[in-house]
Amino acid sequence: MLPEVKLVFLQSSSKGLALITMKEALLWTDGRYFLQATQQLSNHWKLMRMGEDPPVEAWIADNLEDEAVIGINPWCISVDSAQRYEHAFSKKHQTLFQLSSDLVDEVWKDRPPVEPRPVIVHPVEFAGRSVSEKIKELREKLVHEKASAIIITALDEVAWLYNIRGSDVDYSPVVHSYAIVTLHNAFFYVDKRKVTVEVQKYMSGNGIDIREYETVQSDASLLATGKLKSSVDGENDINDNEVGSLKIWIDSGSCCLALYSKLSPDQVLALQSPIALPKAVKNSTELDGLRKAHIRDGAAVVQYLAWLDNQMQENYGASGYFSEIKGAHKKENIKGTKLTEVSVSDKLEGFRSTKEHFRGLSFPTISSVGPNAAVIHYKPEASTCSEMDADKIYLCDSGAQYLDGTTDITRTVHFGKPSEHEKSCYTAVLKGHIALDIAVFPNGTTGHSLDILSRAPLWREGLDYRHGTGHGIGSYLNVHEGPHLISFRPSARNVPLQASMTVTDEPGYYEDGSFGIRLENVLICKEANAKFNFGEKGYLSFEHITWAPYQAKLIDTKLLTPVEIEWVNTYHSDCRNILEPYLNEQEKEWLRNATEPIAVSS
Questions:
Q1: How many other CB atoms are found less than 10 A from the CB of residue 19?
Q2: 503 with 484: CB under 8 angstroms?
Q3: Any idea what DSSP says for residue 360?
Q4: pTM assigned to the model
Q5: What b/e sequence results for 322-341 when a residue is b if at least 16 CB atoms lie within 10 Å of its CB, and e otherwise?
Q6: Model confidence over 405-415: pLDDT tens digits?
Q7: What count of Cα atoms within 13 Å lies in the side-chain half-sphere of residue 170?
Q8: Which residues neighbour 292 within 8 Å (Cβ) at sequence distance 6 or greater?
Q9: Which reaction does it catalyse (predicted)?
């Protein structure tokens, strides 16, 4: 029963947080979405810019009355967030209240029904390690931390641990599920309609007890009292005398408040998930798969750019990818073919779909022309998107899911005559991109320390960008993967980079109302071949595994150093040699032209 106080509703997601009061509606989001939010929010909403405006907990504490009640869906709020809110609210005796139902669900009357999609076993030939190996290693970590069990709520961690995949979340091959692993038992909580006979046999063969999705809350209560039994062996992990000393591991950054609330605070071991690092540090099979997936993906991107170059010339009289001479522009669709941001991105998906092990896109393609490219996470819609324009920059950020790896690549091009300002900005972004790629740094270095390398060339011109420089990437899993990242945000200080981690390299620059530029490769962190080893720390460097050319006519070579010019030429030579076997003769010829060596302008 709700207290007799006016209720404020707080709802969060990975991209934003909404606060609804009796008088106002506010949305908090980060710099990637500032411009998009200003375009899409109605006048009923107020945009709150993360990093610039007060955080939600400070706003509530300062603007709502004493003893206000803030309602939340406890399944959508992490333990860390809830505790941060409660601390901020305490000075005015405000209360965080766990709602028994989601108020959004109650007003979303026409919400589409959820169709059960099957759980799929991810073969060891792609995973590189068996589920039994992973569970054994996890239990060793439980013993080391004197914990008796762990509750796993992150979908990609459940998928990685049990070597399963699914399609419950668009673009991410995960399953809506939870896992509990004890010293002797393992549980998998899922809608059983998704479980095939094959998956049932696979799970039972690995000692994993399949339970209905909704029972995870009651099982968390049983776990807390030492009464959780497995139907596989029917034994408890602990006896009644051990309940008082029971420690249950949760990752407070991802574990939802609903499950945490079933545990006694003094029995909780709140640490980073022991699955996060093993998932992020790829094994040799995963690394080999990622390299191969990126080669096939790079071939698809080159096929797309060659096709688009031809289409822009034929349909719009563009000078094309290689020439800066203004053509007989705007030929009003000679063939009657209108190219839009959506229609061309569909063509890119078509090229990818022909590649081995393709399973879909890894996120909605950011296909953006001119001012739309300044919207960092722009999502074109067929009914409202822009037509291609040879006079404007075109930014394409895209990726795919393959059984052997996940890809994410951004290239920015111009099919007409770019301005000197556009060239200067593109070159600054390229310099930042190269600076991170060639970095050598000691073990123990975090992404927070490396972030400045990509920004410095832009800062010298008085430019910057409002997003991080790099994120981890999964092995046929989430395209954004932690716990590491390269960013100015404080959280980038938490986890040092390690050999065999993957991370993106994606600086950018965005001029609102005009254009946007971003260049992105996926990197593998590796041991560096440094001449010395000061402090016996060991040193790291990067290997780029993304292959697609940079547009030479957007590069102001006068602004590049000899080292940077050599880097571009070496990259292009490698790109040509690696991708040519996957292309037809016309595509090979286009790639040869696109990867011609560049030289300093006279």
A1: 22
A2: yes
A3: E
A4: 0.92
A5: eeeeebeeeeeeeeeeebbb
A6: 999 999 999 99
A7: 4
A8: 404, 405
A9: Release of any N-terminal amino acid, including proline, that is linked to proline, even from a dipeptide or tripeptide
